Amino acid sequence: MSCSLTGALNRIGLRKCFDQLTPTDLQNLSIIFLNIDNYQDLSPNYGQPMADKILQLFVGEINITCRSSDTLVRWNTEEFLLACPDTTLAQAVAVADKIRANIVDSAWPKGIQLSCSTGVAQMHDEDLNHFVARANKALYKAKNTGSNRTAAA
Length: 153
Fold this sequence. Notes:
Blueprint: H1 11-19, H2 23-27, E1 30-36, H3 42-46, H4 48-65, E2 71-74, E3 79-84, H5 89-105, E4 116-122, H6 128-144, E5 150-152
Parallel strand pairs: 4-5
Antiparallel strand pairs: 1-3, 1-4, 2-3
């Protein structure tokens, strides 16, 4: 249920987490997609072990910044999903922006400058797949308009 590299939940862990939510929980659920900007440059420039270390440290920074009620999931190589229960869209945007600021302000190994882009959505009357897709689309809107940005769905 967890990613062995980062300790974040994997998608199976997310599914189990979502399965435990009640309809009331879903009404107040927001998610944040987080993507490390220019991650693809890390391995060629610093080696795969350093790229892996950055992923571990990135997860650590998110865990320090997010709330204890939030759940972090590794979605793919450099993309993570943060499930935020009892959180409005505006509150989730604030959490995303706080995480982004913390990532930029953190000291990374070898003087690497790191940032991330985020996409945020709040659950509406929809299935979970559509909800996740909306947040992911918001992430790509943020990435396509530059880096170190937040976009809301």
